[in-house]
């Protein structure tokens, strides 16, 4: 097999696109209310989801699933914000 120069790694600093911010959507589950239930939503309505609290969450860029993880509270954050600890990650270099 002949040697071919390797293509540049998209994760290198030479690639200007690595500095572009992206938005990742974290999906914790889906609700499937009826139209009637949707029309009667109020402030204290509870929507049951198709996931349990211990189920992994899914991370998306657009409609592309890029990872799964577990929700946790950010350690030492005075505002109690949530974070995601990744448990599975797609091969982003070949998939994006």
Protein architecture, described:
The chain has 96 residues and is mainly β. The protein has one domain: SpoA-like (Surface presentation of antigens (SPOA)), CATH 2.30.330.10. The protein is built from two helices and four strands, in the order E-H-E-E-E-H. It has helices at residues 35-39, 92-95, and strands at 25-27, 57-61, 64-73, 82-89. The chain has a four-stranded antiparallel sheet, with no helix packed on it. A hairpin with a 2-residue loop joins strand 2 and strand 3. It is extended and about 55 Å long.
Topology summary:
Layout (H helix, E strand, L loop, with lengths): L24 E3 L7 H5 L17 E5 L2 E10 L8 E8 L2 H4 L1
Antiparallel strand pairs: 1-2, 2-3, 3-4
């Amino acid at each position: 097999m002949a040697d071919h120069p390797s293509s540049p790694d998209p994760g290198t600093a030479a690639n200007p696109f690595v500095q572009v911010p992206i938005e990742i959507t974290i999906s914790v589950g889906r609700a499937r209310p009826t139209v009637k239930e949707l029309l009667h939503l109020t402030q204290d309505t509870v929507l049951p989801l198709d996931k349990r609290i211990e189920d992994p969450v899914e991370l998306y860029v657009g409609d592309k699933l890029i990872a799964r993880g577990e929700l946790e509270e950010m350690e030492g954050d005075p505002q109690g914000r949530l974070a995601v600890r990744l448990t599975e990650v797609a091969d982003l270099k070949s998939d994006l």
